[in-house]
Specification:
Layout: E1 5-9, E2 12-13, H1 20-38, E3 43-50, H2 54-62, H3 67-84, E4 91-94, H4 98-113, E5 117-127, E6 132-134, E7 153-162, H5 168-177, E8 189-190, H6 192-204, E9 210-211, E10 213-215, E11 224-225, E12 228-233, H7 235-240, H8 242-250, H9 253-259, E13 277-281, H10 285-299, E14 307-310, E15 313-315, E16 318-319, H11 330-337, H12 339-349, E17 356-358, H13 360-390, H14 402-417, H15 421-442, H16 444-447, H17 454-475, H18 480-489
Helix pairs in contact: 2-3, 4-8, 5-6, 11-12, 13-15, 13-17, 14-15, 14-17, 15-17, 17-18
This protein binds one RNA strand through β2, α1, α6, α13 and α15.
Length: 528
RNA sequence: GCCAGAGUAGCUCAGGGGUAGAGCAGAGGACUCAUAAGCCUUUGGUCGGGGGUUCAAAUCCCUCCUCUGGCACCA
């Protein structure tokens, strides 16, 4: 029994269509999850849905449905989306689930009993569309509000607030004192410029207390406050708790102890909290880097080890927007190109952190150059030669390319441990290039014409075949089904899902490979 | 407005006082095992403008311009 590598994605707001941004974040998390499993760690990968709130309530009403029934329908869509992306998540949380809500209420009770909340009257402007309170600062000189807020109403109402100010100093210190949490030098908040933003935010002004309730009269689709039935919980407070409500439901001893839960029995074999990585978008950094750590501290739980912040995608250099039709539909791309190509491009094109730019031409170019003509062609030419010249039977081991393969394996593992997924793919790409160069230099097709060169041909064919096998193991976290196809073509009936197999020489003499077939079929674009 | 960061080859970016780099795109070549794939060679740049420090500046300083991000919301 040992602690699992626990990683999460943001939970998506159910009331919308899955788009490229959602897909990207989930793929990044999935690659990390698969990489860690491949490296031999026990992993728990969580994703899910945020279902409460005004907009969902309103949308359900507009559709003539009860919120729960409405969410059930949409949840099916989102779960199918996760499957389509080939996510390897271990659980899928929905905030409307009882297992989640009981934890939210237990936390609210605990924090309230400990005096973290107070009730106060709020008077001011509110945007139902954005579910947010507005201040005088949000007002334009003429007194109006930006149209993005929709209809703005003036409210006078009581609400519960979470004392934050007393937490400001220790949080600053925590962020500053946790710059390096492992040998790769990962920050508590990464990339470092996001960390600096949070520090600047915390240092520049006093935190305003967080409003954690909404009056039942205005919103009933939420988790009721256990100590005041006239209110439900603010959606953000509700949503963040998913990161520990699922561990609680799974029986994580640390979380259950903090909640003093008597209804659930700890399971000794499930140690999840603290999370190793929260993968989030830059838009929700403040919730994860400020409100969430403070909430955890108040509950008495340790903080997550890392918040990994990714950027946003543009399409053709422009912000994606439904109204202009300037969007990338992940499902359409996957249907046309396959899920592996989609996963590959997303991770290869955009490093975790900066914003990226999706272009269809760029996608097609990478598919052709790196997948079809790169790894795909190397595999195909290697196996076809082994099939033609040696009837598909692996010759005796030979280690000509072993040193370079070992280096690529070592570097790739280091990159994966540091969540440097783009760098890992780039490094793997150098082994593909090396394989193709090796074919040109060793000219096996010429050796095959000269019977006196048979021994040399054996050597070359072994090096090529073994390189392909190593590549399958390295690529598995990124493009699992393609990696498995490589193994199948090599005649190996297991999955290349263990990095410990990325060791030169595991392919045995006398083994017979399977049938070669184009891994990423070339797509000749109709010339327009 | 304020605070960061960035402006280097057609594109994406690395370099960070001492002869300008990579990948892709473009051009040329030899080959033929392969998904007409791959490999080799190669053309591109007064390193945003101006001023300064220095024997020497893409690199340090000043100034201006432009872009991006954060300061208020959103995967």
């Amino acid at each position: 029994m040992r602690k699992r590598f626990y990683l999460t994605t943001a939970i998506d707001y159910v009331n919308g269509e899955p788009h490229l941004g959602h897909a990207y974040e989930k793929i990044v998390a999935d690659v990390i999850a698969r990489a860690r499993r491949s490296l031999g760690e026990e992993v728990f990968f969580l994703t899910g849905l945020d279902e409460h709130g005004q907009k969902v309530q309103q949308a359900a009403l507009d559709n003539g449905k009860k919120p729960q029934a409405y969410c059930d329908e949409l949840a099916a869509v989102w779960k199918a989306f996760a499957k389509k992306l080939n996510l390897s998540n271990d659980d899928f949380v929905r905030t409307s689930e009882p297992r989640h809500q009981t934890v939210v209420q237990a936390i609210l009770s605990k924090l309230n009993a400990a005096g973290h909340f107070y009730k106060a009257q709020y008077r001011g402007f509110y945007s139902p569309k954005e579910e947010t309170f507005l201040t005088e600062k949000d007002r334009r000189p003429d007194g109006s509000f930006d149209s993005s807020y929709g209809q703005v109403v003036e409210l006078v109402e009581d609400n519960y607030y979470f004392h934050l100010r007393e937490h400001q100093q220790w949080l600053i210190e925590h962020i500053e004192s946790h710059p390096k949490i492992d040998p790769q030098g990962r920050e508590f908040i990464e990339p470092i410029y996001r960390r600096n933003e949070v520090l600047a935010f915390l240092k520049n002004k006093a935190l305003e207390d967080l409003c954690i309730s909404r009056p039942l009269a205005r919103l009933n689709w939420g988790v009721p406050l256990p100590f005041d039935e006239q209110f439900v919980t603010y959606v953000w407070f509700d949503a963040l708790v998913n990161y520990i409500s699922v561990p609680a439901a799974q029986g994580d001893p640390a979380v259950l102890a903090a909640l003093k839960s008597e209804s659930r029995k700890p399971k000794a074999d499930i140690e999840l909290w603290p999370a190793d990585v929260h993968v989030i978008g830059k838009d929700i950094l403040k919730f994860h880097a400020v409100y969430w750590p403070i909430t955890l501290r108040a509950i008495g739980l340790p903080l997550p080890k890392q918040i990994l912040v990714h950027g946003w995608w543009q399409k053709d250099g422009q912000k994606m927007s439904k109204s202009t039709g300037n969007v990338v539909d992940p499902l359409a791309v996957i249907d046309e190109w396959g899920v592996d190509a989609f996963r590959y491009y997303a991770v290869r094109e955009l490093d975790i952190g900066p914003d990226g730019n999706w272009t269809d031409a760029g996608f097609a170019a990478r598919y052709k150059a790196e997948l079809a003509d790169g790894i795909g062609n190397l595999l195909n030419r290697s196996l076809k030669m082994l099939q033609s010249y040696r009837a598909g039977v692996v010759p005796p081991r030979h280690d000509e390319l072993a040193p370079q393969a070992d280096q690529v394996v070592n570097d790739t593992i280091a990159h994966l441990r540091g969540n440097q997924l783009q760098a890992a793919l780039q490094r793997i790409g150098t082994l593909v290039t090396r394989g193709n160069q090796y074919v040109e230099q060793s000219v096996p097709f010429k050796l095959a014409k000269d019977p006196s060169k048979a021994a040399r041909l054996d050597q070359v064919l072994y090096n090529l075949t073994e390189t392909c096998r190593i590549l399958a193991v390295l690529l598995w976290p990124f493009i699992p089904t393609a990696a498995e196809k490589i193994y199948a073509q090599l005649g190996l009936d297991v999955s290349p899902d263990k990095m410990s197999e990325a060791v030169w020489g595991r392919l045995n003499v006398g083994h017979t490979i399977g049938e070669p077939a184009p891994l990423f079929p070339r797509k000749d674009q109709p010339s327009k």
